[in-house]
Amino acid sequence: MNRREFVAAAASVGVLGGGAAIATDRVNVGEQPGAAESTQVEIETLDAPGSTAGSITIPDGRVTLLSVFATWCRICAESMPALGQVYDEYGADVRFLSVSNEAIGGTVTREDVADWWSRNDGRWSVGVDTELDLTAEFDVSTVPTTLVLDADNEVAWRSTGEKTVEELQSGIDGALGER
């Protein structure tokens, strides 16, 4: 193999590897923290463990961990233990809200979301984004997506895929100014 073929082969491996990393959610591309629009979104909350039927407005001037999930998402279910551990640690100081952006009323009902929540040990507020307002406001294109909003309603941290307790803690600590 000559030098030109070697360089071409190495570049191809790099492109394929980078694409695989992005496809498997090992790399976050284009997900830099930044200012959220001042638009407030009202989310319908469900009667489920740790949650009451009603609504929550996001953002509201408090540090908030926002997790967007779907009941069909295996990684979303696998993310719940880490989210629960972080909720147990920060729940008094940080608002937690998990939101399903599935089409409610079709094949998924509010009861399905509440049942999934209960089976996966959810114990903080859970809601549904029936009009996809929150999904659009924060440009959520994949699940799970986790955002931390700081007290100024800016996105202080954003990531997709399954996160460790340490990654979630780091995102929250940054929003709380404890870096």
Radius of gyration: 18 Å
Number of domains: 2
The biggest sheet amounts to: 8 strands, mixed
* Annotated CATH architecture of the largest domain: 3-Layer(aba) Sandwich
Helix/strand order: HEEEEHEHEHEEH
| Spatial arrangement of strands, main beta sheet | 1-8-7-4-5-6-2-3
Provide the low-confidence segments as ranges: 6-37
Fraction of helical residues? 25-40%
What is the end-to-end distance? Answer: 49 Å
Give the strand content.
Answer: 15-25%
- Count of separate DSSP helical elements: 5
Give the integer mean of the pLDDT values: 85
Q: From the helix content, strand content and strand pairing, which structural class follows?
A: alpha+beta
Q: Kindly identify the CATH topology of the largest domain.
A: Glutaredoxin
Q: Give the tally of β-strands.
A: 8
**CATH H-level homologous superfamily name of the largest domain:** Glutaredoxin
Keywords: Isomerase
Organism: Natranaeroarchaeum sulfidigenes
Pfam families: Redoxin
Protein name: Thiol-disulfide isomerase or thioredoxin
SSE layout and pairings?
Blueprint: H1 3-23, E1 34-35, E2 41-45, E3 54-58, E4 64-69, H2 74-90, E5 95-100, H3 110-119, E6 125-128, H4 133-137, E7 145-149, E8 154-160, H5 165-176
Parallel strand pairs: 4-5, 5-6
Antiparallel strand pairs: 1-8, 2-3, 2-6, 4-7, 7-8
Report what the structure shows.
Helices cover 36% and strands 22% of the residues. Helix 2 links the parallel strand 4 and strand 5 (95-100). The longest helix has 21 residues, at 3-23. The chain is built from five helices and eight strands. An eight-stranded mixed sheet has the order 1-8-7-4-5-6-2-3. It has 179 residues and is of the alpha+beta class. It folds into two domains: 1-30; 33-176, Glutaredoxin, CATH 3.40.30. This is Thiol-disulfide isomerase or thioredoxin. One of its GO terms (molecular function) is isomerase activity.
